[in-house]
Amino acid sequence: MPDHTRPAGPTTGPTTGPTTGPTTGPPAATGPLARREARLAWSLLAPTLFAVAAVVILPLLAVFWISVKPVQLADLRAPAPVAREDLRGRPEAAGDEATLRYRLRNSSQDQTISRVALTDIWTDGLTAREIDPRCTLEGSHFRCNFGDWEGGYRETLEIPVIVDQAYFDNGTDVDATAVILTGDAQSVLTSNDFTLGNFRAIFDGGEFWSVLGVTLFYTVFGTIGTLVAGLFAALLLNHSFRGQGILRGLYLFPYVAPVIAVAFAWLLLLDPFSGSLNALLVQMGVTGAPINFFGQKPLALVTVTAFEIWRYFPLSFLFILARMQSIDTDMYEAAEMDGASPFQKFWYLSLPMLLGILSVLFLLRFIWTFNKFDDIFLLTGGNAGTRTLTVNVYEQSFALSNIGAGAAVAVVIFGCLLLFSVFFFKFISREEGL
Amino acid sequence: MLRHGYVTAPVLGALWMIIVATTVSVAMSFATGAAFRPSVIGALLLGALLGVAALHLQSLRTTPALGVVATGVLLAMGVGPAVTGIGVSFLSLALTALAIGIGFGWPLARFVQDMPTGHLTRHEFEGALIQFLMATGYIVFTAIVVIPFYVMVMTSLKNQAELIQNPLDFSIDLSQGWGLFRSYIELIRDFRFGEYLWTSFYISVLTVLITLAFAIPGAYAVARLRFRGRALFSRSILLIYMVPMIVLALPIYIAFSMTGLRNSIAGIVMIYPVTTIPVALYMLQGYFRGLPAEIEEAGLMDGLTRLQVIWKITMPLSLPALASVSLYVFMIAWNEFLLAFMLLDDPSKFTLTRGIASLNSSEIPRQHLMAGSVIATLPIMAIFLGLERFMTKGLTAGSVKG
């Protein structure tokens, strides 16, 4: 990428030429100085490496792991034993009989919990008449060992008790101290249960290919549209006139504003029932009936692509403008002398000079549009034929509650991405090296 | 054939009139809510006639004046370049005539300036055409950028009933005084938007600080120090921020659900910086490389350690770059939606973007949604306009990220 795309290429920073490489020590490969320098470098990088590993590398590995696991959204909470405690029989005076009841269950319907144990501290003034053989009572400490619970296990443990005066005196309820239940459960996430079902689920039927088709349409046209609009905007602003600064700031608004704000503004503007644009179109006689921009099958995809172009043209416009302003004006003067017309100058001089930045932008925008999630999610939620791969991750994971399938889609995205980046780096290193 | 003064001028005039008449009609509709629409035939005819006139007049004053008069007369007759519905006030009619006349006449006079009445050279023809295209471009780009924001702001100042009655009527009743801002007041009073604003603000600031704390040493190491794997490292930084957020959000959601970090500001503050560190590191290392190494060497000679050099020499020298990076990171954190949406469920911990998402329900009137959007947009716009120089630099440098 050319220098001007950095915050300070040689044009803005103090300029004493490119200085890379070591600033101390001889260039010896394993000298003590070099070693110390490398050590320092790694220690400076360590926090970043740690953070990136924790939030990027680990999750990526996790995605691969989950994609081959039969995980549903509900499985995220590990199965746990649950207990409710109450005192039945409405004791009214000392010496009354009552029943202390523990309602126990396994929170999971299909997972076994092993070695379930219960601990509770009884309120003063309760005397057990008879205790379940699995349980012991030492003073006020009540303990039980239940062994293994199958999935969906339920039990009501009832202990007949005699209520003493002390119970009424201290006035606390039996469940004042929480019942503690422990048990070993294996979450699907950590078990040795693997499946290819997730991949089968997403590739099954024609759905995957239509999703891929939508993604490609959105990506290709979104990218090209962004570049073309950006090129036009840059041409418009590549003159100095009064108000140029204001206009340039204005044209960046769509990119700088929060996506959620502008997405809702678009939704409102294009609403078929009370949207201003539809009202305008009807009034001007362009269309007889309001158009449902985000609800009709082929149109919704075009609209979200238009939104993508609208939102990201500022970015390519900024890049292209920066490149344009660095083109030497002498060349244009020479061409002028030779009698080149304005269009010829653009076609034969400007465009070739811009080709480098345009292709870099194309690749970057292509990858980023491919990865885009928020925009479509907010505009249509992936309905009306706008479901892209990224929206599909969300759809599978949360709408269909199949986290495993969502992860499988994510793996597919990651695969595409790797493919792009191989291409990207091959190209970029040829293209003046990022 | 086209390259003839008497052909080019009327053709450009006719096309330009269509554009101006449409623009003014749209603007007047949006401003008053009354029915304005361009009349294609009227616009074409008037435009062509005025094109010829402008070619003859060759004046930047007389042509617009003629435009205003002609448009005014035709508008009054009801055939003009724009036609209106019933009950449009005289004032708005006059305003329309004025806007069309000047908006049409002045640029047209520029298009045909120094154009001969006979055969045109390629230069003259393309010059006029380019001016026409540029003028069209300004109008189109400005309109598509401004309209959504205009709708956003104006909707937030109206009420549901007015909006449904006439979706085009964005005129606001100034006599209400502060009542105009009732959506904002309700949002802050009943929907805790004041809190969200503060939450968003301090999360963004924390994100900036943490990002810089990680990225400055990292960027310095990549830019200045020699170690094995440096080239690989500076490349893989780029690779990292090409990983789509949704791919990472899924396992992060799972991990946070299991560790109880979901629904906590701490979790958000842990995650946001990591999404911005690679960008910041990449931007900063580019800048550090451009700094002269000699000053740092002098510092080392004088007995400073590397860390002192970074703190006392490199950082003060790179303040502009730090400002750009901070602004850019602030913008990313402020605008972030996906993670906030997935990880925050508790209304007491929402960020602004998450708060707006919670307003998106059929029970909450639309002006609240738009008022929320304005509340989220205004601060970032204000910062952006105030510090545009840094922001633009930051955008170009960091916008490898989308």
From TrEMBL, chain A:
It comes from the Bacteria. It is found in: Cell membrane. GO terms for biological process: transmembrane transport. Pfam families: BPD_transp_1. Residues 1-31 are annotated as: Disordered. It is a multi-pass membrane protein. Keywords: Cell membrane, Membrane, Transmembrane, Transmembrane helix, Transport. The keyword Transmembrane helix applies. The keyword Transferase does not apply. InterPro entries: ABC_transporter_permease, MetI-like, MetI-like_sf. The chain crosses the membrane at residues 44-66, 216-237, 249-269, 299-322, 346-368, 403-425. GO terms for cellular component: plasma membrane. Coiled coil: none annotated. Belongs to the binding-protein-dependent transport system permease family. This is Sugar ABC transporter permease.
